[in-house]
Specification:
single chain, about 270 residues, alpha/beta, about 25% strand
């Protein structure tokens, strides 16, 4: 219900956030009224500029319950995390389109917020569209049976409308260690994957969404997912993740990183703390 949306202060007239991020909030709010806080961090003496900037941004959310906060500080991360401690359910972040590097997954600020946020984070990495529109005709959600995948599927069903197909995909891994002479291990993985997919499709029906389940075989899940996204001309790919501890760099898995680098569609990463 309570969503915090940090917005980078811009004075050059460029979009304040990806159009896809605003569309995600609009579709979420259509199912469950949201209380949205737009937050921007500005330099000393520029609060009035920040307030005027946010007043313009809030026009993207007609009819929504929107609060704006402009804070003067040189520590954007500290301000955002302090605000996030105030019982927010979700922190929504827009990511740049640049490729991941050895030092960051998204940007240094987004990476820090995902690692440190006390609530679920939703990162929207979207390509620039000249027409400004963000279609949601085809949504792909990979599942491995974990709770993070269920969270991603729930988001997909929430974003779907009557014209949207939500594809639930399980990749049955095949490699030299995946089978014995009789192929029993591969068959077990196939049976498990069918259960994962069927459970989420049943959940989609409860949401009133048009869910389609599919299993694919492959040695590399990320490659299979990327091929599936291309084949179905997906508009949105939703990945459910959890932060991998033990590294100073944000790490959500090598497969997630490859998908973020190579997927041509909007990618939404839902990370549960």
């Amino acid at each position: 219900h309570r969503v915090l949306v940090p917005v980078r202060f811009r004075s050059d007239g460029a979009p304040a956030m990806p159009r896809a991020a605003a569309e995600v909030l609009a579709r979420m709010g259509a199912r469950n009224p949201l209380s949205i806080t737009l937050l921007t961090v500005v330099g000393p003496g520029r609060r009035a500029d920040g307030t005027a900037f946010l007043d313009a941004v809030r026009r993207d959310f007609p009819g929504a319950d929107v609060v704006t906060k402009a804070v003067e500080s040189d520590d954007a991360a500290g301000v955002i995390l302090a605000e996030a401690q105030k019982n927010y359910d979700l922190l929504l972040l827009g990511a740049t389109e640049r490729l991941t590097t050895s030092d960051t997954l998204f940007t240094s600020l987004v990476d820090l917020l995902v690692r440190s946020a006390p609530c679920t984070t939703l990162v929207v990495k979207a390509p620039v569209r000249r027409d400004g529109a963000q279609p949601f005709r085809s949504i792909v959600v990979p599942t491995n049976g974990k709770v993070e995948a269920k969270t991603a599927a729930e988001l997909g069903f929430t974003l779907a409308d009557a014209q949207t197909a939500v594809h639930i995909l399980n990749v049955v891994r095949e490699d030299r260690d995946a089978t014995d002479a009789s192929g029993r291990m591969v068959r077990q993985r196939w049976d498990d994957g069918r259960v994962f997919v069927d459970d989420l499709c049943a959940l989609g029906s409860a949401f009133g969404a048009r869910a389609k389940g599919e299993l694919r075989r492959g040695a590399e899940a990320d490659a299979v997912i990327l091929d599936f996204v291309h084949e179905h001309r997906a508009d949105v790919l939703i990945l459910g993740t959890a932060v991998h501890v033990g590294s100073a760099r944000l790490f959500l898995g090598s497969r997630v990183e490859r998908i973020l680098n190579e997927a041509a569609c909007t990618v939404i990463v839902v990370n549960t703390p």
